Here is the input.
Amino acid sequence: MSDQANFKVGIVSAWLKRKHKPNNISRPPRGRSMCSKIAPKIGVYLPQVSTSFDGVPEVAHRAEELGFHSVWLSDHMMPLMEERPLLECWTTLSAVAAQTKAVKLGTIVMCNSFRHPSLLAKMSATLDVVSNGRLILGMGAGYIEKEYKAYGFPFPPATERIEQLSESLRILKLMWTENRASFEGKHYTIRNAICEPKPVQRPHPPILVGGTGKRISKVIAELADYCNLDRLTVEEVAAFLSRLRGICDEVGRPPQEVRASLCSDVFMGANDEEVTKKADLGYERFIAMAEHARNDNIGLYVDRFRPCTKEEYLRRRISGTPGQCIDTIAQYVKTGIDMFVLVFPDIMDPEALRVFRDRVLGYFEESEA
Here is the structure.
């Protein structure tokens, strides 16, 4: 065979290999941790601030078509730093439910103080029916005093807000599972409350609770299906989950019944230059939020936005090339995280989710297979 013929055969062979390699899936760097045999569930935080509603179902449809596990919204009444439009969580999620078919629908997280638990039980049961069993109900005790006061909600001490959350979760479970639910607690009382139709999911929709403090950890151990961790390092996640397992033992609940999720920003690029550009913008935003939190003394935001270097900031995010992002996610999975809620700063770019799906999500799916 001539040199020219050999060259042509080589070109065709290389083309066929690329054509049949699924979506140019990346590989993590050699010598680093690998993912578990079970692929993590990866969800997407939907655009909610300074956006028209049209963009929300557009991103939800894209996430669903690309095979992401879930889409999520947060429960705030107003943006924390600027006076910008903000879509209300539950109304928006209900609209998304009506315009999607398979993707899970999550709240990260509902502020317990904004709705009476009996009303929320009815609302969430109905949404689970409307969506044919796709709700993941994330709940939190609330923490931004400025927001409470602006909207006229009482802002009791943290201990009381956590007690209220605990009672609310008990009421939710009772109303979701019993024909007539009654409960008399320190903060809430219901008598013969009827919640029909019941949720589609049995025994009830998954309950996710956010927080890492001692009191909230006990609530998680007793009543939650998921604990949600917000922007922690791999080491911090491992340490917390170890403590949580001990608390589960103390309250008499098998630790494996409480799964773990992580919320994280994603700064992914094809090369170091692209990654640095995205990460710099994220860090600048973080610094501005930190200054705002300190000036207004916004509760736990003072701790969440504590001063740190850019390196420390990025250790609490998923950042890098696709291979590096795979490696970071795999390390989190190794600690016990099995669900991610990812915040993409470029979420409105149609290619952002598609590239992540092809280069990162696809790797974990292939590994599981």
About this structure: Residues 125 and 303 are 35 Å apart (CA to CA).
